[in-house]
Specification:
Layout: H1 2-16, H2 21-45, E1 48-51, H3 57-90, H4 97-106, H5 120-128, H6 134-161, E2 177-180, H7 182-194, H8 215-229, H9 233-238, H10 244-273, H11 280-291, H12 296-309, H13 318-327, H14 329-341, H15 351-362, H16 370-394
Length: about 400
Amino acid sequence: MAIILGLVTVVYYLIFLNEYHSLLHIFAEYISFIALLSSLFVASGGIFIKVDKKATPYMNVLFLLFGAVISNVIGTTGASMLLIRPYIKMNQNRIKAYHVIFFIFIVSNIGGALTPIGDPPLFIGFLRGVPFFWVLENVWFIWIPMIMLILGVFFLFDKFNDKGNDTPVQNGYTGKVEFKGFRNLGYLAVIIFSVFLDPGVFSWVPDWSPLPFGIREVIMFAVVYLSYKQADPEILRSNEFDFEPIKEVAYLFIGIFLTMVPALQLIAEEARVNRDLLNAGTFYWATGGLSSFLDNTPTYLNFLSAAMGKYTLDVNVKAHVLDFVSQDIIYLRAISVAAVFFGSMTYIGNGPNFMVKSICERAGIEMPSFFTYMIKYSIPILIPLFLIIYFLFFH
């Protein structure tokens, strides 16, 4: 169904508009997207982590906080794939849907807001000219209260839902953390290094245009093959590893990437026409709202372009981006925070969300449907927290 709906857009653009540049551009972005997700998924699948500690609300909070921090080092996808299985096993006697939902909120999305490695839209900003440490310097004081607030809400959930749990629990915890698959840490390092192999970052990196991929994507797909072939079969069995979660993401997001082409073009045009009416609050809510349902990377880029348009600057010129950052960072801050934070609003807001959902369902955890996720969890929990962030920093 996703592919059929995507083909509707393809046929319309090719036959009725005779316009293929937008499709080639979005196809190149999709290849980069699926290369990064699949390489992190397979490389982390060859790592086994077992936390032999009693799963308490305090322990879970510390675990999620750790996941939020390392998501800035290995990306939200890497952190999600690395930690979701030990998180499930640690809570195996008491796991409920809300455990996974908050994992998606914190580790798969909000945690990765501090570095360009953390989430793809921030990396795109870095490629366009935003200094690498700009995000850390300008978002940390928003990230800390947001993480503390959501961890506090989770603690209350976990504390009250733990009462009356009569499920027998394992005794004699050793308190040890078991780690296997050190070789795959090297593959994760290769993936992180390859992220920066872009002609826009280093002039010596070859530009393979008009091919819709470059040396970065070749390295990532090579990691997919090598890390799977050289993985310990026992670790793969322990992790119940298979390719179904990444296949589901690949099918779903090819439809999303194609059908969002006209939507993003409409956003860009409306932002250009109405740029004088745009303020920090507008950028915050508009970027966040669309990042909840469309891929947050092109959404980030379109609103960055609109914000720079207020100063008659071009997002495609690095010198202009640096000039924009020096003039008025409040717009960029609002766009950066919203693109990352609001990706947690739906299963399709960010690639790792759907992968975590698929892994948990295959582990026998009953996950809420798409709309139940929103109605029962993301809207009542996240929107009030996003409102607090708005009034504190962007109102």
